[in-house]
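User: Fold this, then the next.

Assistant: Folding the first:
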Amino acid sequence: MIVLTDQPQNPPYNAFNNSVLKYGSDAGTPVISNVTISGNRFDLFPDATGEFYFNLKRIAQVLINPDHFTDAKLPATILNDASLYLDLEAVIDVQLSDGTLETTTLNFPFLKSVKQLIRTKYANSELKLLIPGATDTASVTYFEGFPFDVSLYSDAGRTLTVTNKRTGGNTSLLLTKGVNRIFISDGADGSGLESVLPMHLGVNELECTSGALMFTLFLKKKAADCGHLLKYFNQDGGWSYWLFGNLHVDNLKTATREVINTDYENNYNNTGNFKITGKDAETSKSFLSGPLDATEKMQVLELFTSPSVYLFTNELSEGFNAIDNFITVDTPSGNYKTGNKYAFEELAAQIEMPKQYTQTL
């Protein structure tokens, strides 16, 4: 039979980390192995000890990310986001030297996530928050009057009871297998989870239980204030949000496309000796985060490594009801100050806006 000597640990697995399978056979001498995933077959040959090596990473990356980190989901109190989860099935055949064929089928649940070597803590594998730093507890900051959601992985369909320990109120949510996004609000008054489980300003201790499983989300609600809301894909495989200050600096960078020599007339018939084919123009915005505690800073810093960043284009309390209420922006390459000796600190951020359309030849 096929014997696994190594495989990924602590599911669900991270699609952007190595997920290595090592296997062989205890019944003879392996000659060749076939691994079939989503109709694609990969042929492997054993090493000198008869062991096969196969890394699922590249395949998982491609299969889980056909949308290239695009978020086209409209808000609902809770919705299943299939773009953030992959249930990968691998059929493994091993042919032995005597002609015997051995077969096994393995399943691997993947999140659109990545983990660093220094981050070794794992939440439970049945139910976990996709929030930077989350284990069986997590803390996030929510800005009143702006969209906000929390991503949650569940290994099966189940009912989740959410109790706000500060108010005593509770509600039940029906989770489906995969990644569920719980919208605290779509940005309008009385929407999302807040419509059935009101949140006070300050920290709301949300105790979440499903049978014997439990985790706690400390949701810090900040009062409505104008600013620039950025939504960005975090390393845990969900979406994070931060409201930067309303005071900002707008920057405009221009470049001439090409210069054409027009110096072919006498001076008295000439209005100039060159002509340009047009300008390229790029705009950016610079702003400050406001004071951040250690947890908030850890979460905001992921903005600078995120593969997908959006800027909310609606005003305070207008709500989010269309895809184009968010536009794609980016954080420029560079060095960022990430720490100081103080308990609270402020981070400076710059975003590059969509490229401007200009008149060109």
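Now the next one, as you asked:
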Amino acid sequence: MSYRFLLFEIKDRIGIVTLNRPEKLNCLDQTAWKELRKVLKDGDENPDVDVQIITGAGRAFCVGDDISVLTQVRDLRICKDLMLDCIYGLADTIIHLQKPLIAAVNGYAYGGGCELVLLSDLAVSSEKATFAQPEGRIGAWPMIFATFGPALLGLKVANEITMLCEPISAEKALAIGLINRVVPHEDVMPSAIQIAHQLMKSSPVSLRIIKETSTKILGERLYDFWISQLRSFKEVSRAEDFIEGATSFMEKRPPRFKGY
């Protein structure tokens, strides 16, 4: 099957998903969110795939949402599609994958890209990669990271990333447990493939049970995530700061937040 913004190939029973929008740093609009959800689900159900790897084309892993879409959130249909169908749907899919998912972080992992790394089972990063949740700077909110980050990384760490909005290095990402390994840039994919082969030495049944156990806390938080999505959906149509933040980003100027 062909995808508009993704590449998918199987090598040695490893499903490799490449976000393929390098001219926009692999940002995600509704089509890309839905394609990613489908390709991961299809790979999980494919008997020829034992492990999946997600990476990005070009100099970025993924910088999250396409900002041009965020400027349209006053349209409630677009808002519902993005928040409930796309973002929640992908988080739910990743949490319930039965096969391991490895993030091979080749560059910028911002916003939704950083959240993909957070939800992945394992992550290997280029020494050049940086990670950030900059949503607060544009009047938005990092729904996935704010919901699952405290449980996975600790409250203070998650708050530092989501509230201060400053990029962190690969070394710091390793220190706080967001990723597992930092390697030279050219070794990102070889290292991810090496990890995949190591995983395939274990019983698929064991891996599935380990995943079910380790992601139980995430599944328990899905309800909270759903509620936060509904609350955000109700508020976004009247959130002036959200619109101002997205618009100012597109116009390359400092935002003029009003606090509502």
